[in-house]
């Protein structure tokens, strides 16, 4: 594929979408100050768009989103991309099915990450969205692609679109940016619910057969389908 010019319609649409979705991270209380970020592939290209480093959410604009190649290098002059860019880029290079990556330090999910403990698939909403426990990835320092390597290794062959990177926070993936943001929202929701449940006693994981059935229904049956007139 050839990269578009920096003024292509696809790039500008992706900038606008990624910028707008950052507001959802604030809305759902998944981030504080300048922490967290969203990136997404630019359709039909080998480019991604990601949040600029150290910019507050209220100051984000579509034009401030930084376009990078799949090695995490900016392709135009302007802002500095997120310090997590190399991690995101590694995911894109090694998981071609992924269209977007989200990173948060949401409170309850990050508490599980601090304990290095997977979130057990103990409620039906979790089976629907994740189809499994939410796994823990290895500890890695920020700034290189080590976090990306941990994400890819942990999610390889796993249903969950979310991973808790040990002592760090949450990374989610999706076919597009909205899907990855939804996974981040749901990850925090189930992390909080299961944590609160455990305060009152042991929490039992759902039977695998029930997890499989719930996941299949939610992914393949739930919601509106094209051509459904009933």
UniProtKB/TrEMBL annotation:
Reaction catalysis annotation: L-ribulose 5-phosphate = D-xylulose 5-phosphate
Which family does this protein fall into? Belongs to the aldolase class II family. AraD/FucA subfamily.
**Enzyme Commission number(s):** 5.1.3.4
- GO terms of biological process kind: pentose catabolic process
By its UniProt entry, which PANTHER family does this protein fall under? FUCULOSE PHOSPHATE ALDOLASE, L-RIBULOSE-5-PHOSPHATE 4-EPIMERASE SGBE
Q: Which GO terms describe its molecular function?
A: aldehyde-lyase activity; L-ribulose-phosphate 4-epimerase activity; metal ion binding
Needed co-factor(s) = Zn(2+)
Q: Which UniProt keywords apply?
A: Isomerase, Metal-binding, Zinc
Span-the-membrane segments of this chain are none
Zinc as a keyword of this entry, yes or no, is: yes
The Class II aldolase/adducin N-terminal domain covers 16-195
* Record's protein name: L-ribulose-5-phosphate 4-epimerase
Q: What Gene3D superfamilies has UniProt attached to this entry?
A: Class II aldolase/adducin N-terminal domain (3.40.225.10)
Q: Supply one GO CC term from the record.
A: cytosol
| Classification via Pfam families | Aldolase_II
Keyword Glycosyltransferase, does the record have it?
A: no
What is the enzyme's class at the highest EC level?
A: isomerase
